[in-house]
Amino acid sequence: MNDRTWPHRSETSHFSTLPFPIKNPIRKHQNPTKNHEKHENSPSTAICLRQFRSPATSRRSDHHRDFAALPNDVLTKIAANFSLPNLQTASLVCKAWRDGLRPLREAMLFLRWGKRFKHGRGGVKVSMEKALDSFLKGAARGSTLAMVDAGLVYWEMGRKEEGVALYRRAAELGDPAGQCNLGISYLQAEPPNVKEAVKWLYQASVGGYVRAQYQLALCLHRGIGTDQNLSEAARWYLRAAVGGYVRAMYNVSLCYSLGKGFIQNHRQSRKWMKLAADHGHRKAQFEHGLTLFSANSLTVVLD
């Protein structure tokens, strides 16, 4: 999936005053500790303590019961896009969660081996078949991370329909990478499904996925699947650039330079062009070099 760059075209208080009449005041030589212990252990006191139990304690107890009562299928969907550290943390909440999240923790093991087979890491020979098998086992256990990686392998093998099906599963479970890849797949389909593409790219963009933010900006810039809106396009370019997406940095520079989507600002344009150049963008390096050369030439003339 090749990315294209610049287009040619009030609650009440929990505390209250409770009148406690003192019927048996402590006598001068009476042991207050014993009196207190007797009072705490009396049946009437136990009822009173239950009645006036603090709301915070009550809420903690209720929440604990709610955590344990969460069905495993719901829990698995909620945690489908969790990484291994997040899964390990969630597994500490209660025994029910530890047991319910076991398939997803197993999926992380298959995901790790899939990446080893795909990239030849850890002394393992590259094997796309074994990588795909590992990713599919992780996907079968509910991990959207494994679904996306399996979809990528299918896509690289030319089995695009199977790849898109896995992207869709991950996207529907809220995975931003799956949503982004599904949107790009719709753009590259024959014929393209631009409405669906923009819908999924927008969801991934709102979720903070910078590649989706860049692709959405391109759609808004060109008017693909939506009305052309240069100011919105520039805003999404900027969000992707701030998130570290290099192509977006270059396009933000052009927006400032040409006054498209932003008020023309040559200082900001030079700033983003240099950032894109520093991150290896070839066009940005060339244009930033021309700017530096022109500045040096002007200095020589003035001298």
Write the layout of secondary structure elements.
Elements: H1 32-41, H2 43-51, H3 55-69, H4 72-78, H5 84-90, H6 95-100, H7 102-119, H8 128-140, H9 144-156, H10 160-172, H11 176-188, H12 194-206, H13 210-222, H14 230-242, H15 246-258, H16 266-278, H17 282-302
Helix pairs in contact: 7-8, 8-9, 9-10, 10-11, 11-12, 12-13, 13-14, 14-15, 15-16, 16-17
Give me a quick take on this structure.
The chain is mainly α.
Provide structural commentary.
This protein is mainly alpha-helical. It contains 17 helices and no strands. The chain has helices at residues 32-41, 43-51, 55-69, 72-78, 84-90, 95-100, 102-119, 128-140, 144-156, 160-172, 176-188, 194-206, 210-222, 230-242, 246-258, 266-278, 282-302. It is elongated. 35% of the residues are buried.
Distance between the termini: 50 Å
Radius of gyration: 30 Å
Percentage of residues in helical conformation: 55-70%
How many separate helices?
A: 17
| Secondary-structure element series | HHHHHHHHHHHHHHHHH
User: Averaged pLDDT, please?
Assistant: 82
pLDDT < 50 runs, ≥5 residues:
8-52, 298-303
Q: Strand portion, in percent?
A: under 5%
Q: Major beta sheet, specifics?
A: none
**What oligomeric state do these chains adopt?**
single chain
Number-wise, the strands total 0
Helix-and-strand structural type? mainly alpha
Question: What shape does the CA trace take?
Answer: elongated
Which key terms come to mind for this protein?
mainly alpha, single chain, disordered C terminus, 303 residues, 17 helices
